[in-house]
Amino acid sequence: MSPTSDHRKRATAPRMIGSNLTTVRSTNERLILHLVRTHEQLTKADATRLTKLSANAVSVIFRSLEEAGFLLRCAPIRGRIGQPSTPMRLNPAARYYAGLYLGRRSYRLVIIDFVGNILARQTSIHNYPTPTSLIAFIKQALPVVLDQSGIKQSQLDAFNIAAPGELWSWTPELGIAKEEMEPWRFFNLRDEVATLVRLPVEIENDGTSACRAELVFGGKRAAMDWAYFYVESFIGGGIVLNGSVYPGRRSHAGGFGPLRVPEQAGGSRLMDHASLVTLEHLVKSEPEEAIERIYSDELNWSSIEQPLDAWIKRAGKSLTYAIVSSLTVVDFEDFVIDGALPVHVRDRLLNEIREQWELLDRQGIDTPQISPGKFGAIAGALGAAAIQISNDFMINQHQVLQSDPTFVSSGR
After folding, report:
1. What is the 3-state secondary structure (H, E, C) of the chain?
2. Is 333:226 a contact under the CB 8 Å cutoff?
3. What is the structure's pLDDT at 25?
4. CA distance 384 to 159
5. Cβ neighbourhood burial of 374 (10 Å; 0-12, 13-18, 19+)
6. Best exposed site among 14, 149, 154, 390 by fewest CB in 10 Å?
7. What is the mean pLDDT of each successive set of 10 residues along the chain, which is 412 residues long?
8. How many CA atoms lie less than 13 Å away from 333 in the CB half-sphere?
9. What does the alpha-carbon distance between residue 167 and residue 173 come to, in Å, rounded to a whole number?
10. pTM to 2 decimal places
């Protein structure tokens, strides 16, 4: 049976419960904003039921958030017993953010609003990134996206970056001379970009950021514990535990690239088979032509069907082994597969994983859901832009449970 058809043991999502103590009101405001984002719109009665806060506390919070510009009123719901109720929704204009993806083969810059609408975007493809080319890209692209979005630079709350760790590493896999990437070792990325854009800058692992985009903007998801695989020049990803992104103590959680899989021609790591660099090597053309064809925003891969088919089989088999290995550590309910892939290619990859799943020995392994991601090539930049949304306006279960004993998440 396929991973999507057999999900008998899906857990019931826990309910987030607030506190009626006035000392944790900021936590309760985050909780209300978190729930409105998850449900898209929410009435006071629904918020009271979901949080176990008093009706009066919910009314005060709704009024405060509306006055602060975070919530907007929807059309009243009529036809029920009693007075009509008025749902509230997030105000897209409450905040604006810029997100930059610093990739080994591309730069991508977006401007988004508070609900995750992409107001403008710019992309640049390269053989390899350098500090000089990054600064040049920002200088060129930022005025363009500001003009396209109609947003002034002073209206942006942050300019955040999603980037791989240790950019100076892994040069042989990319076919790059080691000395070309050495400048990254001594480049203060945060300070240099902050000085250039005159905005707060946060930096996050690119896979974690892509996973964050899926969590914050991907819509309501039943699973509370899930893993995210993101296929780009290399393959990485992220982990969500108890409904919140878990970056790990060293910010490496979900870095699936070095995960060992049964050895095939090419290596024994997941990144040796399920990365777009592997597809580049299978495309019989000049390296620059292969890079432009694969990483372009057009994502038209019809001319590389033969190597693409071979890559899908190879990547799908390795990803299936990676899923089984991951399930021996955490009983994830769902695995989300995304990447800088055309939608039809991503769907073919998912189908290959489902077929390979049936061929494996799965004794002692529960069958999880296998789901497609929603944002493709733009996920890293989108997730970078969402860092402040997560930090300032959503509940992080890992932080709350450690620091606030009055905040309780009900068991499953």
Report:
1. CCCCCCCCCCCCCCCEECCCCHHHHHHHHHHHHHHHHHHCCECHHHHHHHHCCCHHHHHHHHHHHHHCCCEEECCCECCCCCCCECCEEECHHHCEEEEEEECCCEEEEEEEECCCCEEEEEEEECCCCCHHHHHHHHHHHHHHHHHHHCCCHHHEEEEEEEECCCCCCCHHHHCCCHHHHHHHHHCCHHHHHHHHHCCCCCEEEHHHHHHHHHHHHCCCCCCCCEEEEEECCCEEEEEEECCEECCCCCCCCCCCCCCEEEEECCEEEHHHCCCHHHHHHHCCCCHHHHHHHHHCCCCCCHHHHHHHHHHHHHHHHHHHHHHHHHHCCCCCCEEEEEECCCHHHHHHHHHHHHHHHCCCCCCCCCCCEEEECCCHHHHHHHHHHCHHHHHHHCCCHHHHHHHCCCCEECCC
2. yes
3. 44
4. 8
5. middle
6. 154
7. 38 46 64 94 94 93 95 82 78 98 97 98 95 98 98 97 91 88 95 97 96 94 94 96 92 92 90 95 81 83 91 97 95 97 96 95 91 97 97 80 42 30
8. 16
9. 12
10. 0.88
Report how far residue 30's alpha carbon sits from residue 36's, in angstroms, rounded to the nearest whole number.
10
CA distance 64 to 61: 5
Write phi, then psi, for 380 (nearest 5 degrees). -60, -50
240 has which bridge partners? 226, 245
Helix (H, G, I), strand (E, B) or coil at 262: strand
Residue (of 347, 363, 343) closest to 355 by Cα position: 347
Residues 328 and 364: their CA atoms lie apart, in Å, by: 9
Q: How far apart are CA 29 and CA 37, in angstroms?
A: 12
CA quadruple 37, 40, 44, 47: dihedral sign: negative
H or E element: which one contains 205?
Answer: strand 203-205
Strands 88-90 and 71-73: antiparallel
Structure tokens belonging to residue 292: 């432009």
Residue 280: both structure tokens together: 């580049």
